[in-house]
Amino acid sequence: MGQWHIGVIGGSGLYEPGALEDAQEIAVNSAFGEPSGPVTTGRIGNVRFTFIARHGKGHRLSPSHVNFRANIDVLKRCGVTDILAISAIGSLQETMAPGTFVAVDQLIDRTVGRDRSFFGNGIVAHVPLADPVCPRLSGLAASAAEQAGATVHRCGTYVAIEGPQFSTRAESHLYRQWGADVIGMTAMPEARLAREAELPYALLGMVTDYDCWRDEKADVDVTDILAVMRANADLARSCLTRLAQSLPDEREASPIDTILDIAIITPPDHWDKQALARLDAVAGRIVTNVPV
Ligand SMILES: CSC[C@H]1O[C@H](OP(=O)(O)O)[C@H](O)[C@@H]1O
Ligand SMILES: Nc1ncnc2[nH]cnc12
User: How far is CA 140 from CA 7, 136, 143, 152, 276, in A?
Assistant: First the structure.
């Protein structure tokens, strides 16, 4: 049992966490390069929240240039116990209309060329990822969103594309045939890296558009997406307040908190010193007590 500390990754249209008590903006260095920006840490009631804007303030970073490793590393360094990501998503299903929320539970990764692991080169780990989303946090976040007044779909498969362009119509139809429900550009490798950092991850998507499969005339565009996101940003922020109010007083341990115990395949006497040095936060629970 322990305290909750929720890391929030704010996506398109959500560049500020809203009112946090005792809020402080802090620049935290990462061993994996430049994060998207400083974090804002503060409390809602008894629960600590630490927020980072995924694309940076002013939306400077495209999905391909977000340093996902640095962002997760920084949140881990801040001591977060769980991550709630908030994203703009396109809908691939008629029933998931713009303005509704989706608590994503599965992911398909179509991104290319992004750094997708903290490990390799001197210390190899293979974490299980069959269920990339933490059902506990996802359920709590979905309930919080409902209490805040949102219509929430409690599961959905998200296909992560590389972007930055939106999909072709043929791709959009293909993803629907694959069983994807929603589409975005950022949940991968974010979810992979959260798992490697032993952080339960949940993703609350806000549907902003129907991508391009549905209507031959009205294709997705960024202006419409941002209008929906702006209209929903306060709703997203009130989800955080509701979440803080509804979290159990004590946080029960999750199997994800110790997932590296079953994932690191390289024996400690072969661990590379340089690799270890930058894993001091992500795998700090394991590597800091190892004699080198
Ligand atoms: C602004 S439209 C496309 C952009 O929005 C989504 O970002 P995020 O997941 O950070 O909310 C999508 O993944 C694209 O990056
Ligand atoms: N249709 C779409 N495709 C990819 N990313 C998105 N983010 C919001 N809408 C999207």
Answer: 14, 6, 5, 12, 34
pLDDT, mean of each 10-residue run, the chain (292 residues): 95 92 97 97 97 96 98 98 97 96 98 96 95 98 97 98 97 98 98 98 96 83 88 91 96 97 95 93 84 52
- Residue 39 alpha carbon to ligand 2 centre in Å: 25
Q: Is 149 left (phi over 0), alpha (psi -120 to 50) or beta?
A: left
Cβ of residue 166 lying under 6 Å from some atom of ligand 2: yes
Catalytic pick from 211, 215, 219, 269?
211
Helix (H) or strand (E) holding 138: helix 135-147
Q: How many Cβ atoms are within 10 Å of 288's Cβ, its own excluded?
A: 11
Domains of the chain are 5-287 (3.40.50.1580)
Give distance in angstroms: CA of 226 to centre of ligand 1: 10
Q: What is the pTM assigned to this prediction? A: 0.97
- Decide: 12 in ligand 1 pocket, CB within 6 A: yes
Residues that constitute the known binding site for substrate: 185, 209-211
- Examine residue 164 and say whether the peptide bond preceding it is cis (omega within 30 degrees of 0): yes
